[in-house]
Amino acid sequence: MENFRKVKTSEEDSPLPFTGLAPDVVEMKVKEGSKIRNLMGFAMSRMELKGTRQIVFSGCGRAVTKTITCVEIMKRKLGGLHQVTKVRYKTLVEVWENKDPLPDGQVETLTVHKNVPSICILLSKDPLDPSEMGYQPPEPREGDNGKVPVPSSGGRGQGRVEWLC
């Protein structure tokens, strides 16, 4: 491979793995070289609009961790978002070209098909099906310090709320 150089990389186009998405759902395709600041600026501005109820983040290969980071930032900033995560494989097609042309002037090419991990994460302001594989309910609000309110039972403490950690 040291005599070859990569000239083209493309990924297969595949539909989103979620059913019942709105036709105007915001889709964020995270790439390895994407800047988180740019992705989050656009995604946050779209999710803060009244009409936007759902957003999908997707990334493959080395962009998977950046995709998850974007989702976690959005969940913390907006709060109350339901999440469904789907993991799958995508096929990347790489075309490599020989650096040294053949004696007759033709260039030798090599095509490589790579299966790389891919992730798609749906965030929704509206409740999603909790029985769906990969579902995560909204996290408690930031001001709650991760504590969940539980009503106390009977006696003197009636009407009070205790906090479980």
Account of the 3D structure:
The chain is an alpha+beta fold. It has one domain (4-139): Alba-like domain (Translation Initiation Factor IF3), CATH 3.30.110.20. 16% of the residues lie in helices and 38% in strands. The strands form two sheets. Strands 1, 2, 3, 4, 5 and 6 form a six-stranded mixed sheet that branches. The protein has a two-stranded antiparallel ribbon with strand order 7-8. Helix 1 links the parallel strand 2 and strand 3. Helix 1 (36-47) packs across helix 2. It is found in: Nucleus.
> How would a crystallographer describe the biggest sheet?
6 strands, mixed
Order of helices and strands: EEHEHEEEEE
How large a portion of the residues is in β-strands, by DSSP E? 35-45%
Question: What's the CATH topology label?
Answer: Translation Initiation Factor IF3
Low-confidence stretches: 148-158
Q: Write down the CATH class.
A: Alpha Beta
Helix content: 10-25%
Roughly how many Å apart are the termini? 55 Å
- The total strand number stands at 8
